[in-house]
Amino acid sequence: MDTTCVKCNKDCDLSSPSTSCCDSCSVAFHIKCLPIGGNELRVIEQRKKRSLFFFCDDCKGAIKRLPHILRCYDEIKFGLKTLNVLKKDSLISHDALVAEINDRD
Length: 105
Ligand SMILES: [Zn+2]
Ligand SMILES: [Zn+2]
Known about the structure:
Elements: E1 2-4, E2 11-13, E3 19-21, E4 28-30, H1 38-46, H2 57-64, H3 66-89, H4 94-103
Antiparallel strand pairs: 1-2, 3-4
C-alpha cells in the first residue's frame, strides 16, 4: 500500500520499521521526519512492539485542546441530565414525542 508521509510528502512503506502512523488518525509518516531526538529514535526502531504513541501535528493540537473538550462534554452531559429531569416533569409524554418524530419522516 502506497502512502505519503504527512511531513515530507514522499512515499512511505508502511511495512518498514522506519515508518509509523499517527495513533489517532492513522496518517503515515517517516519516523525520521518527526521532531524527535536520536535516543528516542533508536528506542522506537529497536522495539517492534511499540509502547510509544505517535500523533501527527493535527492530533497533537487536538490533544492540547482535550481538557477543554472534556469540560464541554461534562457540560453537555450535565445539560442532558437536566433536560431529562425537565422532561419527566413536563406535560409532553414520551409517546407524544415519538409520534412527533415519526411524523417528520
Ligand atoms: Zn517523511
Ligand atoms: Zn493524527
